[in-house]
Specification:
With 579 residues, the protein is an alpha/beta fold. The protein has 19 helices and 25 strands.
């Protein structure tokens, strides 16, 4: 008699092997104890019928920002409703440890600026029962979660802790500064940090507009920190490289050069964030090949790619061009449905369009980038419900306006009112330069790359890419019509064995006897990803976007069912995982 048996499903075990039908998985305690054809697996105290469904490992999401949220929230939404059973945080050079008492506000403003997590929520929610990074890990270890958590030490708080204002202002580090930072990184990794992250992209800025500490760090600082991490014999070095968004055409090639040399020098994995930009839309191919060449030479240089385009969501519940207009002020305290109804008044519509047009004309010369973004109607697409993150040109606001014989701004206005104000439009900035998912498909099938960049917990009011695992299954495996799809076993491996291996999670990522019982049972044929919706459930009334999925029969963490039929069960078996 087993504690739990998942009975008679289609097993996709995470190794990349072809799916196997009629398989059952037995669990005792928190370990998988049998994986075999159904007839060979004995009964369970509890059984889950997986007939007509797939059984997969739990998804390992290596790019999240729950650094603050994990200190007050056990559910770890928006990731956990999408089959995620392990999250890695501390990405992009931002985090909350180490932290001196007088640095708390700075680190909150840094996280709010870079990752759009409401500062008031962080201020009210974070416990700050730590100063050092090992103490931060100890605080996390006291928590109970719906998924396992793991953390990297980030360059931003590290630099501020060692250098104070000099570090925050991105002044050059002295040899003593570097030595102290290196020592703290070594101590952090020895204590269980999964590695070190730094950001060099100019788009990552604090609320005061200043770049993340470490953005301009010299090579000796980066290499010395990398060597300190490597001395622990474990850890991943993560880089958000300069020029990520196409703002610097020279930087990406310089970045991949030192990244490859760093991986050679420290003998540890170096993963760097890669997205297709609109300025040099094919540059990523060269950078990917450089990574492949480094891997062929025995160095772990691993591009981290996304499963869908990166941009913003436009709607009454997020941001839209009429929101700050004088005539919109009386509507701000209304529900979105009431806003949509009120916006049906022709006189109000005329005023809002006129006010918005005047504002845009006033910034046309002084803020050309902002003007272009707001006015690029050909790149603003209906998202829909169920969602479509690979929209065709006819779903753009520009195309719809032409079909309806109106100006694009009028079309945008009316689409904001759709579905009682719940409708959203997506505007991709990265990963959609050619108006299709072909580049993403190439990245997802490139042998050098690993899947990441879901940003769980971040960009709370603009995107909800934490739902990427569900999108990978519904779109890339099952529904895509604009190009080739991906095999189910390939996508599952990308989200389990591959991501687990990068961070050294040797006890999970595949369905095998002796591995940790992190599993999903998914009604794959009926799996759906719904439209994001805004909720105000963060501390201090902070808002964020959540995105529901339909079709997760069960998610199991450490042998316990944490979600059943797309709802939390209340079980919290997740704990801190140390390197």
């Amino acid at each position: 008699m087993h504690d739990l048996v998942i009975r008679n499903g289609r097993l996709v075990d995470g190794t990349g092997a072809a799916p196997a039908d009629g398989m059952s998985v037995a669990v005792d305690g928190n370990v998988i104890t049998a994986v075999a054809p159904d007839a060979e697996v004995g009964p369970g105290t509890r059984e889950i019928d997986a007939q007509g469904k797939i059984i997969t490992p739990g998804f390992v999401d290596i790019h999240t920002h729950y650094d603050g949220q994990a200190t007050w929230d056990s559910e770890l939404e928006p990731s956990t409703p999408h089959g995620v059973t392990t999250v890695v945080m501390g990405n992009c050079g931002v985090g909350f440890a180490p932290a001196k008492p007088d640095e708390h506000d700075f680190l909150i403003e840094l996280m709010e600026g870079v990752e759009d997590i409401p500062g008031a929520a962080l201020s009210e929610g974070i416990s700050w029962n730590w100063e050092s990074f090992p103490e931060y890990l100890d605080e996390l270890e006291r928590g109970e979660y719906a998924a396992d958590i793991a953390a990297m030490i980030a360059h931003g708080p590290l630099r501020a802790y060692v250098m104070g204002k000099r570090g925050a202002d991105n002044e050059p580090a002295t040899s003593d500064d570097i030595a102290e930072m290196a020592q703290l990184v070594n101590e952090a990794v020895e204590a269980g940090a999964m590695g070190f992250s730094t950001s060099r992209t100019i788009g990552h800025r604090a609320m005061n507009g200043e770049p993340v500490p470490g953005t301009f760090a010299a090579e000796d600082e980066l290499f010395t920190i990398g060597r300190a991490m490597a001395r622990a014999g474990k850890g991943v070095f993560e880089v958000a490289p300069a020029g990520l968004g196409g703002e610097d055409l020279v930087a990406p090639k310089k970045e991949i050069d030192w990244i490859c040399r760093l991986a050679d020098d420290i003998g540890r994995p170096v993963t760097w964030l890669m997205l297709q930009n609109m300025v040099e839309p094919d540059e990523w191919k060269e950078l990917m090949e450089r990574s492949q060449e480094a891997q062929d030479a025995g160095h772990q240089v691993i591009p981290q790619v996304a499963g869908r385009p990166f941009g913003i969501l436009i709607g009454l519940s997020t941001k839209h061009r009429f929101k700050d207009m004088p005539s919109f002020a009386p509507l701000r305290d209304l529900s979105f449905a009431e806003q949509a109804e009120a916006m049906g008044d022709p006189e109000l519509k005329a005023r809002l369009i006129a006010e918005s047009t005047q504002v845009m004309e006033s910034i046309k010369d002084s803020q050309p980038m902002a003007y272009q973004v707001v006015s690029s109607y050909e790149r603003q697409y209906l998202l829909g419900d169920p969602v479509d993150y690979e929209p065709t040109p006819d779903r753009s606001i520009a195309a719809l306006a032409e079909q309806h014989g109106v100006e694009p701004i009028e079309e945008l206005y009316e689409r904001l009112r759709d579905r009682e104000g719940r409708a959203l439009m997506m505007m991709p900035f990265l990963g959609y330069a050619h108006g299709n998912g072909d580049a993403l498909h190439e990245m997802l099938t490139h042998p050098a790359a690993v899947l990441g960049l879901a940003d769980g917990g971040a960009h709370a009011n603009f995107i909800c890419d934490a739902s990427t695992p569900t999108w990978m299954l519904t779109h890339w495996v099952r529904d895509r019509e604009r190009g080739p799809r991906l095999p189910l076993e390939h996508v599952i491996k990308k989200m389990t064995a591959d991501t687990a291996a990068l961070f050294g999670f040797t006890d999970r990522g595949v369905v095998e006897v002796g591995k940790r019982a992190d599993l999903n049972v998914i009604d794959f044929d009926n799996l759906q990803l719904r439209e994001p919706h805004l909720v105000a459930d963060l501390p201090a009334g902070g808002t964020r976007l959540l995105q529901a999925a339909e079709g997760y029969t069960a998610t199991i963490v450490g042998g316990q069912v944490t979600r059943e039929n797309d709802a939390f069960t209340g079980a919290r078996p997740g704990r801190l995982v140390r390197s």
